[in-house]
C-alpha cells in the first residue's frame, strides 16, 4: 500500500447509517468530540448519504452535529448542500415513467416501494417495511397514489424488503430493461435496493463539493460501510471502511477502522488527522 499524506486532507466526509451512527441511531460522544476538534483545525466536515438532503438537514440537529456539518451530499450523490458557500444543487432525477416500469418488474415479490421527497418517504401501501424504515430513519411516511405522484421525475426509487427476499430482488434486477431510459441499481442495505440515474454516485456528488472549494480527491478522506460507498472509498485520497463494512467496499479501502459501535470514525481521525 502506498504511503498516505494525511497533511493533504482538507475535507472529511462520512456516510451516515452503519458508519457515523451507531446501531442505536446516535453519534457516539467520543466521535462527536473528535469531529469538533477536526473542524477546529479548519478541516471541512460533511455527510455523504443515501438519505435525502431535506431530512438530513433536520436530523443533524437531533444527532447533535448541526454546528459541525459544513456540507451534505444527499440521495446517493444527486443532491448537494454547501453551507459555507450557500449553494444547493439537485441533479439527474429518474423519470416517473421509468419508476413505474421498475415497480411493475418487482410488484409480485414481497416488497414495498419508497420514494423520498423533501424529508418524507412516499409509498403506495402501508406495511411493516415502511413502518420500520420510517422509525429507524426518524422520518415521516405517507401513503399515496403513485400513478399521480409519478407524473413528475423523482430523485430515486427504493425497494424495501426483508433480508431473505433480497436475494430474489437482486436476481430479478438482472432482467430489468427499459428501452427509453437508463438506470443504475444496487443494494444499499440488507433490506434496501435502490434505483437511480447512472450518472449519479457518491463520487459525483463529492466532486461537486470539491470543485466549489478548488480541492481534489487527494484532499478528501471518506468513511463508509456498504456497497454504495464503494466508489467514494475507492476514489478518495484516503478511503476508510468501518469494521462492519461490506466485503466489496473493504476490498478497495486504504484503511479499515473499528466498527460503527466502537467509535470507528473517532478512533481513526484522532490517530491520523488530529
Record keyword descriptors for this entry.
274 residues, alpha/beta, Rossmann fold, Hypothetical Protein, Haloacid Dehalogenase-like Hydrolase, Chain: A, domain 2, eight-stranded mixed β-sheet, six-stranded mixed β-sheet, 11 helices, globular
Helix content: 25-40%
Structural class, from helix and strand content? alpha/beta
- Note the quaternary state here: single chain
**Biggest sheet features:** 8 strands, mixed
Number of strands: 14
Please give the order of strands in the largest beta sheet.
5-4-3-2-1-12-13-14
Strand content: 15-25%
Overall pLDDT level: 96
Please compute the radius of gyration using only Cα atoms: 18 Å
Q: How widely separated are the two ends? A: 22 Å
- Which residue ranges are poorly predicted, with pLDDT under 50 across at least 5 consecutive positions? none
Overall 3D shape = globular
Just give the CATH class of the largest domain: Alpha Beta
CATH superfamily of the largest domain: HAD superfamily/HAD-like
Can you give a write-up of this model?
This is Cof-like hydrolase. InterPro entries: Cof, HAD-like_sf, HAD-SF_hydro_IIB, HAD_sf. One of its GO terms (molecular function) is magnesium ion binding. By secondary structure, this protein is α/β, with parallel strands linked by helices. The protein has eleven helices and 14 strands. It folds into two domains: 160 residues, Rossmann fold (3-Layer(aba) Sandwich); 101 residues, Hypothetical Protein, Haloacid Dehalogenase-like Hydrolase, Chain: A, domain 2 (2-Layer Sandwich). The longest helix is centred in the N-terminal third of the chain and has 12 residues.
